[in-house]
Specification:
This protein has about 200 residues and is an alpha/beta fold. Helix content is about 25%, strand content about 30%. It is built from six helices and 13 strands. It has helices at about 15-20, 30-35, 50-60, 60-70, 80-85, 190-204, and strands spanning about 1-5, 25-30, 40-45, 75-80, 90, 105, 120-125, 125, 140-145, 150-155, 160-165, 170-175, 180. β12 (about 170-175) and β13 (about 180) form a beta hairpin. The longest helix is centred in the C-terminal third of the chain and has 15 residues, at about 190-204.
């Protein structure tokens, strides 16, 4: 079962519905026992970085989640602000991130040519075809973005997907069994299905 972590942030039903269409057993939950038995985890995020971090910590689930991620090596996928949360922090706020990946979230620079937030469909380039998720995506994959802050990993080996909005930025990152994507696969039709199918397969 893939547990979609519920900490009262965002609309999680679309993620659950797409996983169900892929034949995955998934549940939106804030139950520690279900998280302990999950074979995969999804960390969603919507809105401000600080609100998401405070909301997650308030659940008391973080020790259980980290035990599954680091001791049991269960795959986890952060989505949108959830992807930013697996890093060290964000320019948007003052809260510390989870620190699972050596990266920070930076605000898109002000520019007359670029609207912020970056919103809409964008092409994504796979930078690591040997990665199980990267290898599952079509060369012309496009995903739906809604964000004002972008992922900036310290190390190139953590980047598996790139997009461009005035400049190239990391659209997908990995550190072992930990994944994060800046876009919304649950809103990205067949491309999102391909990504979530690859994640489901990782979860066994």
């Amino acid at each position: 079962m893939i547990a979609i972590v519920d900490y009262d942030i965002g609309n999680l039903g679309a993620i659950e519905n797409m996983l169900a269409r892929l034949g995955a057993k998934a549940a939106i939950t804030n139950d520690a026992e279900k998280i302990r038995s999950a074979t995969g985890l999804i960390l969603p995020g919507n809105g401000s970085f600080d609100a998401c971090m405070c909301g997650l910590r308030a659940t008391g689930l973080l020790p259980t989640i980290e035990k599954r991620v680091f001791d049991a090596k269960v795959p986890i996928l952060g989505i949108c602000v959830g992807a930013q949360m697996i890093g060290k922090g964000s320019e948007e706020g003052n809260e510390k991130g989870l620190g699972w990946v050596d990266m920070t979230a930076h605000k898109f620079p002000a520019s007359p040519a670029l609207r912020v937030p970056h919103m809409g469909w964008g092409s994504v380039r796979v930078t690591q075809r040997t990665d199980p998720i990267g290898s599952a995506l079509e060369p012309d994959s496009r995903f739906y973005f809604v964000h004002s802050y972008y992922l900036k990993p310290a190390f190139r080996h953590n980047v598996i997907l790139e997009a461009n909005y005035g400049f190239d930025f990391a659209a997908g990152v990995v550190e072992g069994n930990i994944y994060g994507v800046q876009f919304h696969p649950e809103k990205s039709h067949r491309f999102g299905k391909s990504l979530l199918r690859a994640f489901k397969d990782l979860c066994g």
